[in-house]
Sequence to fold (390 residues):
Amino acid sequence: MFDAQRIVAFSQQETPFYFYDLALLQQTLDAAKQAADIHNFHVHYALKANFNHRLLNAICKAGFGADCVSGNEVKKAVEIGFRSTDIVFAGVGKSDREIKYALTQDIFSFNVESVQELLVIDGLAADQGKKARVALRINPNVDAQTHHYITTGLDENKFGIAQWELPEAIETLRQCQHIELIGIHFHIGSQITDLNVFKSLCVKVNELNNWFDERGFRLRVLNVGGGLGVDYHQPDASLVPDFLGYFSVFANFLERKPGQEVHFELGRALVSQCGSLVSRVLYVKNGIKKNFLILDAGMTELMRPVLYQAYHRIERLDQTESETEMLHYDVVGPICESSDCFGKEVLLPKSERGDLIVIRTAGAYGEVMASHYNLRNEIRYVYSDDIQQS
Ligand SMILES: *Cc1c(COP(=O)(O)O)cnc(C)c1O
Fold:
């Protein structure tokens, strides 16, 4: 349950801040783990969605692996206590330094995004006298039906190895003495709400799985990435995403060969709903054409609306039953950019300076994207169980 009263209890705190509902996080993690366990699926948490340390600790303790997209994320995962055998490392531009570090940690898999990267990893593994485990990230040209800025699996995207490059990739692999090909990897995009998209992905994975098999590669791992979406419009109606439905698509449509493991990399679906951005109204501007609510939070605290034209539900927190006058507001931040806007024509009870506003479903790709633009303060956050101290 989303507990608005709990946030109100923090209202003496200086705003803006992120509020993390750890009980809801735990409920979400348990649901995901149980649903994955039914099919023996392995789930790695994509650290880039949120690397707040309390969240990471809970996720690690709940038994998830880690999906990293930088050397520092690998380092963070190791420090938090994720087992190196549960860490995967993707990214189109891994530097030598990052690869060397990950090799010293003996991570489970490099998800390799180009033929050239295979050669680089092979050379660096040779220097350390090691054999690197890799999965080829293949661009399956499947349309994720999501915002084009978060689509990653189309021919026009920079990610992964194109299918026409695969013959060259396997020739290269045959020459690489310090690489063991363990599997194939896909990640087609984010905030995917149409499960049919994952069905199409399964069809592609099956085709490619057979293609490798016919060429004598016995793959141990099918890694289908992440991307499961959450409900930004009606968060209270589905605080915990439908993990059962999601995993059952793969259970039904993925053709596993004997001994093959299926791996996932979920980010957004695990942490979105447990996070909210809490802010205060600084000023109200009532105009002829527009009413503006000017908040003390802006794009420097939550960039998704500016970056992806993303929708977030905006609510007045200390709303009383008797309030009847509703107004449409453009809810904006204080940053010197016209795009610094959380929502246009948002219907809210008539508001005034000092009112608390909560921006929902902000646990993923929120705090991690905070910036110092305009020399803004360090982002602040509180946890639901901090309540006693406040
Ligand atoms: C970002 C990312 C994910 C997680 O995506 P979500 O949409 O947050 O589930 C998984 N795998 C890779 C390679 C990524 O870059």
